[in-house]
Amino acid sequence: MIREAFAGKTVLITGTTGYLGKSLVEKLLRSLPEVGRINVAIRASARRPARERLEREVLSSPCFKTLKSEIGEEAFQKLAAEKLHVVEIDLGRDGLGLSDEGRAELKASDIVIASAAAVEFDNPADLSAQTNLLGAARLVETLRATGGRPHLVHVSTAYVGGMLRGLVKETLPLDPGLNWRHEAEVLAGLRPVVEEESRRPEVLNKLRREARSRVGTAGVPTMARTVERLRDRWVKDRLVERGRAHARAMGFSDIYGFTKAMAEYAVVELHGEIPLSIARPAIVESAAKEPFPGWLEGFRMAEPIILAYGRGVLQDFSGLPDGLLDIIPLDYVVNAVLAIAASPPPAGEHRVYQVASGTRNPLRVRRIYDEAREFFGRHPLRDRYGQAIGSPTWTFPTRGELMARVKLGVRAVEAVQWLVERAPVGAAVSRLSDDLNEERLERGLNLLELYGIYTSVDAVFDTRNTYALWQQTPAAEQKVFPFDPALFDWTRYFQDVHMPTVVRMARADTGPRKGAGPSGSTAPKTEGNSVLNALRRRAGREDVLAVFDVDGTLVETNVVEYYFWMRLKAQPLTDWPGFLAGVARSAPRWLYLERRSRAEFQRSFYRAYDGLDPDEMRRLGREALNEVTLRRIYPEGMRRIREHKRAGHRVLLLTGALDLVVEPLAELLEVEVDSAHLLVRDGRLTGDLEKPPPAGEARGFLLEEYALANGVDLAESFAYADSLSDLPMLEMVGTPVAVNPDPRLSQLAGQRGWRIERWQMAPGNWHLPMPDPRSAEYRQYSGSR
């Protein structure tokens, strides 16, 4: 039946860069050599022509590894060149943007499988409308305009019926009284409206305040870029929110199901004499057997929930434990679609086939929970210390109860986070911020919002048409194209195929770490880390730079502590109380300015040097090398500098600290330095800087100038810093490293996947640097005053 239907035929497939589309192409090449020609519909992107996208995004996929291993790479390339032909199609344009040759190819097609879709449940409303609804309508209209009469297989979803109870039949969705054209026009036209809303003064002011809270100390250009990113995010969130609200008001779980339902009405209305079959898969998950067990591309629905359960992110989940969660392996969907394509209805008619497991091999929500608990009980995931994560016990509360509980937790953590981020910066504060788990709570809330509805569906998808098609399939073809869900076992599928795939794709750690067990320290080991590996790979390259911030990155100190030590050393003990009182009065203002802008803080603070003797301060700065800097330096930082120098890299200290205290360290390390310099007038320091302090965006500009002057390849270079104000510098290099980061940099580094390292002082040097008034040297020096 299937082989005969495809023999010598021309097949056109849309959505071939997607999970289902490329899997259909693979199955046709591997199991249906009789097929005449496979037209691969691909839209050229701004960066790549359609043919290149076929090579990069389809044929290079792991999906084809079984076929390549069976016939060899050379034979595979020959087969692909013989069978596959690119047709440039843009479903977002009227007439599909086809050339004359493309229209001829479309007209000559005997079977058209429309699998293109925006399948995410939280896609913006306009994107879902353009792809799922208008794209489907444009394809049918263009097919009719060419005069072709292929069998059209429209791939939809079993959830087009909305939140129904009981048996969902293989018929058109219940009509909610909507006009699909009007719905498409409204949803597709939302973006300009929301874009305009995003530029209202009250919205922009709110986003600007949020940007200042996140990256204000990083400088004006960084903050401007952040405002624009936040505005783009605001637009997307509003489009997602509007689509979700609109869909749920109409009785649907999400915008995906709603636009797919409207698309079914569109294609049924428009198909005319074209034979039309609608294939409705349920929740498509990893392949049970073909092209290889566990073939999966991207995380779909069950994977995020399974992984969050194994990681302890979801301590509970809502749903009906005895309800059905209709999951179907990918290869069963592929085989069913091909069987449907081989059985066209009479011209002008349509048929609906639901590809689901609920009637033939029902899977209940509690069964998935039990399978996950068993799997992670035998293969527990590990936390960052190598400790096994225990499996949570789910009680299946109602969705409303659980959402209220999680939202309360998110608000509580946000409040604590707000306090932590405004506390004086330091490694301990940053570690506390890292441990607050706000991101974990928000991830759990997002999973509940997206997928909680699906675990509460109290419906069964009727599959009588699909099962009748199975019974008509010859026994020999049933072995090659299995699509009856009764053929596989859920326990074997989850324990041996799907859950191992989820863990492997997430690169989660399931085995105990080698070496000594966890010590309780939060400091990651530097041996063998990704930074050292990158450093050693670039050994011998003189165009590689390692740029280090100093205060807080190489040394556990700051500009205030250097000033504190030098000024105390330079005055009698009797003057200390007055000096300390003055520092205490200024401290709140300094903290405020440091929080607002590192450059503002430095300009203001350095005015305290007004009137001091530059020669005397330079001598005190050299004394501070031994008394302050080397006592509070991080040994890991010294070792890292030596590693870079051994690798032949340039090393630059780029800091807003004064040359008085930094140049002695640079001379000791034999590295370059760029620091702040105070102006001198009439033999006295003025407290004014010679040039803007190297903070925020100024640090980025200085680094760029240095790279141009010295032939440095910044894409291959390294930067080490501890503060969000160093963000412009970190963003310019290929390997940014956050060392003892402040809370906001720690959060951002985690989001961007940057390396975070915790360096520590040698034991016993934790106390604030202060000269010892009991020393003979101090008494001799201060007594002369």
Description:
- The chain has 32 helices and 19 strands.
- The protein has 785 residues and is an alpha/beta fold.
- Strands 3-2-1-4-5-7-10 form a seven-stranded parallel beta sheet, sandwiched between helices. The protein has a six-stranded parallel beta sheet with strand order 14-13-12-17-18-19, with helices on both faces.
- The longest helix is centred in the N-terminal third of the chain and has 30 residues, at 220-249.
- The protein is elongated, with a radius of gyration of 32 Å.
Short key terms for the protein model shown above:
785 residues; alpha/beta; 7-stranded parallel sheet; 6-stranded parallel sheet; 50% helix; elongated
**Broad shape:** elongated
Strands of the widest sheet, in order across it, are 3-2-1-4-5-7-10
The low-confidence parts are 424-438, 509-528, 780-785
How many helices does DSSP assign? 32
The whole-angstrom Rg is 32 Å
Measure the end-to-end span: 106 Å
Compact overview of the structure:
With 785 residues, the protein is an alpha/beta fold. The chain is 50% helix and 11% strand.
